[in-house]
Amino acid sequence: MKVLAIGDPHGNLEGISKMPLKEADIILLTGDIGSANLMRKMSFDNVERLAKGLPKIEYSPTQKKRAFMEAYNSSMKLIRHLARFAPVFTIFGNVESSNRDTKAESKKIGLKLPLLYDSLIRIPQVSVINGKGVDISGLKVGGIGYFEDSCWVREFKPSKYQKRLKKAVKDTHKASKILNKFEGLDILVAHQPPLGILDKVSFSGAPKSWLGKHAGSKALLDYIKRRQPRYVFCGHIHEAAGEARIGRTQVYNLGCCEYRLIDI
Question: Which residue from 9, 234, 251, 255 has the fewest beta carbons nearer than 10 Å?
């Protein structure tokens, strides 16, 4: 089986069109499907302001919806294109939001937002595998969507630190329980890299306080060391794209719209 794994596409249809799509039997995505230019700018600007002791910018409901729709529309367009070539299996990165989170945000801003998960699974040949294992003609694939690992919160110390840490501890415990159910995987698709492996922040657009830090997940690292899947595909830290080994496991950080075609 030929597996085409694609790192965080971010709506880059031009880049996708140059990939060997016709050779793929299945396509795997590491999340961050759509464009997040507006979303990233809004987030990073406020991280920098808080670091300087300045008040946060309070964006209007219309601005928030515009950022959401940029990601939603570009995600749908890209996935529809990929699904013409082969079955697509994707997880969610930090750009995508669950139905529950989208409904909460919609209520908060007072504007209706479409549910990405529901929209994706209506497309023929598309599966969202957040927290799921699938058997594809004997190939065992597990998916773990983005979660805020407690080690990231402790290292990066975001605003509302205690609240974020409390939630991250719960989310990390939940993610570890999901990972522990995956046995004998051929491929694990994750959004963020394992801690200390292809995960160092050096992107010039990132907040200065983040530079040089490791942004990977300890829960993922522990799982890989213990269960040794054959391959791990991830993204998230685009500038750290590359490959590494953890024991018998081959890890690929596919960065932003990079790919690997493997015969397995």
Answer: 255
